[in-house]
Amino acid sequence: MKETVATRVLCLLIGLTSLIAGCSGGSSDSSVPISGETLSFEMQAGGQTNEFFRQGNVAAHLLMRSSTKPRLLVVFPAGNSGTGLWFQDTAQPVNWSLDTAISPVVDHDSRGRALYGIAANVSVDVPQLTLRGALLTSVRFMRDFNGGYPAPAAVQTQPTVSGNVIHWQRDRADGAAGYEMTVQVTGGGTVSTDATGALVLKAANGSGSLHLNVLSYTGETPLTPITHADLFNNTVNPDTQSQNVVEFLSYDDKLLAGSWQYDTYFGRDTLISVRMLMPVLQPPAIEAGLTAVLSRLSPDGIVAHEEGIGEFAVIDNEKNGRGNDATPTYDYKMIDGDYLLAPVMAAWLIDDPRGAARAAAYLAQTEDGGQTNGSRFVTNLVHVADTARAFSQQSIASNLIHLRAGQIVGNWRDSTDGLAGGVYPYDVNAVLVPAALRAASRFVASGLLDPYLTSDQRTALADAAQQASVWESAAGALFEVSVPASQAATAVPTYAAQTGVPAGTLPSSTTSFYAVSLDAQGNPIPVMNSDGGFALLLGTPSSDVLTRIVTAAVQPFPVGLVTDAGMLVANPAYADASLWPRFTNAAYHGTVVWSWQQAMWVAGLDRQLARQDLPADVRTLLTNARLRIWQVISNASDMRASEMWTWSYANGAYQAEAFGTHSADATEANAAQLWSTTYLAITDPNLRVSKFWWQARNNGMEARIAGR
């Protein structure tokens, strides 16, 4: 029988070590032991303490928000699930601490089904917190609730209170093993209710710090970790923090995009991360990522963007008339992933000797549903060729790759204003489509796909190389922007004054760059952007194209994109002033820094500098750009593994700041993001800084942790 709350209280009073020994559930079963390698690390970012733990069937991220809007979350990669507590606003920012190391625990529900979780002792430096809301459900619903949206009624549950212990428990919406959370106020503290019925957690005598014992569980099926030994080869940079992040996010079934908000499969994130980390990853990790994408393709070869699993899938299926079913659902609204798959597959199975030696066997592997990797991949290549053909035959803007019908997003700039209202993204059309066509042609020529190609598919791919040439010569030209010096002399100072930054040295000649997108009429929207990095990483641009991509971008903001806080992903100074409010440093894809975009630029510049066909002046341009970007990357090294960040300007300098800490920020950034670890594969022996810099960074990080 399930233990009573009183029994759980007794266990908590005995101590968390006893929970592991058997007090944690109604029945302790040695058939579900907690064993295996332990991964445990901390990351501090933007007033958040992030504790990551993984051992055996337990993988969890404990997040404690230190601000005037305190919260405590425990999220699990298993089922993209979690438990969370949101507290009412406080007059002053609170500060959380982890008082004892996280411990893994196993419980069982009333039907004997295993629940896996963690136990932790935490404290907060205020004597009282009032609970605003609690959720035990899918992370998809938790992140919506965190953003101000109500949670579905089906996932809400009321707690039971016994003395100083609050307990939540519920089955998943379809009756499967669900979720559980127990919080005990320790040190003589109490739990009561206020006049509104809200639960009040209070320290003893109403003073000092509030101390809590926390237990959190999920009944979702655990994922199988890819351990450190199978992740990296000996060329990986010795950045312990980033290696830990990759390890926490890597599983046999998939590579997770990031924690806490994206603790599951995202196609674009997987492909970019695999491509950039490929030099330092071992084959099992690379192929886990590629197989995750191939196995989630639509029947007509479209790459899935995000998966809905666990309780989100149950409720989504019910909502859409598919019954009480936990079958995963997939989001196919993005277009960029469709054209990323082929270049990444080519980088592994054709260009990398390790992958080339495994290519035939890998393509022949059969995944769920009985299809081989090769046959699935062919459907994507045919989709690429078919959708590219119209522009190959008539190179006009209306034949470019358009956002899918009814969508305002479609590439990595997938926020409301990320494309400035455009419908033809630069990165997809000028870079990804021709790169995918080149890769398709190479695969056909290699013979690797012969066992999987029907005659019709072979015909569809026969002109891939010819199509690629047309796209390479014609698509980018449609996005060209040229701003005369006279126009910049007015626009930049006006924009700078509104933004609160100095205008700097104004351009003395025409400023040229590629627009972030084209509008519905095919007109370039002149928002300067960082997406030229895709061309550096995946293409072989001409000297003229390289000059256009690099020259303006590496100028100081607001003329270009570079600040001491990092390289910005957008600069609207040259666009109509009506767009400026949509690209602030509080916008998700505004004048902010995305870590992986900087890494892509460095990796892409290294790739271009390895070419032997570039004139000396272009090589000098690229070399100087590389040095400048690496310099600003180093300035915000403590944020590198996070998703993205913003900045402030004061006393003549830009200062990097965590995104999500200001009320104007559109959302919050993940502390651990897979594609933000791609610096692990960036080395530069000519600069003689890499190994020494990484070691110095690790030493500094360890010192900060030791002194917390």
Number of helices: 19
Helix proportion = 25-40%
Let me know the average pLDDT: 91
Rg (C-alpha, Å): 26 Å
Major sheet attributes: 8 strands, antiparallel
- Residue runs with pLDDT of under 50 for 5 or more positions: 1-10, 12-32, 685-708
Write up what this structure looks like.
With 708 residues, the chain is α+β, with helices and mostly antiparallel strands. The chain has three domains: 5-218, no CATH class; 228-244 and 252-472, no CATH class; 476-670, no CATH class. The protein contains 19 helices and 31 strands. It has an eight-stranded antiparallel beta sheet with strand order 1-2-3-4-5-9-14-13. Strands 6, 7, 8, 10, 11, 12 and 15 form a seven-stranded antiparallel beta sheet that branches. Strands 19-22-23 form a three-stranded antiparallel beta sheet. A hairpin with a 5-residue loop joins strand 13 (190-193) and strand 14. Helix 8 packs parallel to helix 11 (426-446).
Write a brief structural summary:
The protein is α+β, with helices and mostly antiparallel strands and 708 residues long. The chain folds into three domains: 5-218, no CATH class; 228-244 and 252-472, no CATH class; 476-670, no CATH class.
Task: Spell out the key features of this protein.
708 residues, 7-stranded antiparallel beta sheet, globular, disordered C terminus, disordered N terminus, single chain, 8-stranded antiparallel beta sheet, 3 domains, alpha+beta
